[in-house]
Amino acid sequence: MRIRRRTCASACSQRGLLKRLYTRIYFDGEPGNASDPVLALVPAVRRATLIAVAAEMPGGPLRFDIRLSGPGEMVFFHC
Q1: pLDDT, tens digit only, all 79 positions of the chain
Q2: Can you tell me the distance from the alpha carbon of 60 to that of 2, in angstroms, rounded to the nearest whole number?
Q3: pTM for the whole thing?
Q4: Is 12 helix (H, G, I), strand (E, B) or coil?
């Protein structure tokens, strides 16, 4: 049986970028994150840039910051 993990694909663009940047959004607390083959390719110190976390209250909205450069720059994938 194939297990499907809850993720979202995202494409980002910005003035001055010639190509779109592609990433995935994972959800904090998802049991499948630990065994996800794509997430496993990302160095452990950078994985947090791909995970949406609860903003303030449990069950409330999630927070996911997209940083294109600088400290906390998120991981992008070549497609």
Answers
A1: 455 668 888 998 888 888 899 999 999 888 889 888 989 999 999 999 999 988 777 777 888 888 888 888 889 888 7
A2: 29
A3: 0.80
A4: strand
